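Worked example 2:
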Amino acid sequence: MSIFEANDSREDFVEAVDALDSALELTRPGAARLLVVVSDGIFKTRQVQEGQRRVDRLTAAGCAVLWLAPSEDDYPMDGAHLTILPDPANAADTIGAAATRALRNA
């Protein structure tokens, strides 16, 4: 089993979402769009409130947000389609099925 960790003391969910939206036009209407977030949702400072605003903006524009969490004890943003992903070996199948559900329900 592989364990992946981010051992940095800083995260910037807001900047990452803004950069992806700018590069990929996630809020542009007229096409199927999906943002996939892999996170426990434990953020510092303004990341929670500002991050929720970004997720709200994306979902309001019709972009599905798929949140892959390592456990049921994590903190996804409201409006995201939550999928628990405890076993990385099953990631491809789990992500494919979850992405299909998220896009259908966007």
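The chain is about 40% helix and 15% strand. The two ends are 33 Å apart (CA to CA).
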